Amino acid sequence: AERKRIEAERAKLRAEEEARHQKWLKEEAERKAQWQAEMIREYGEKYGNAIIEGKVMLGMSQLMCQEAWGRPIDKWNTITTSSTISTWLYNYKTYLHFVDDKLVKIEN
Questions:
Q1: What values do phi and psi take at 102, rounded to 5?
Q2: Is the pTM of this model over 0.70?
Q3: Sheet containing 84-90: which strands, arranged edge to edge?
Q4: Nearest partner of 106 among 9, 68, 43, 42, judged by Cα
Q5: Cβ of 83: how many Cβ atoms within 10 Å?
Q6: DSSP 8-state assignment for residue 91
Q7: What is the DSSP letter of 100?
Q8: Which member of 3, 52, 65, 70 has the lowest number of beta carbons within 10 Å of its beta carbon?
């Protein structure tokens, strides 16, 4: 009798844990869908879908690139008489080069 009670209690706990997990998965899917809709609304189909896919492309702003790839490892600015050139470093081998907040070069 005691063993059956323990097994029933374990089954109940497993079911509760599974219900919590399913709820979390549903909430996570909803958050992802909201973020995807926000990216497209904010940046348009072309750039929004690139961000969703984790891609950067020429013409993106620094904010768009950060949405797609996260924060760079390092970044620095070079100021010229006509513009500001920003260089961002990712994974110690990929550089993004911006001129006045517009991605102009991706260097691997």
A1: -120, 125
A2: yes
A3: 74-79, 84-90, 94-99, 102-107
A4: 68
A5: 13
A6: T
A7: T
A8: 3
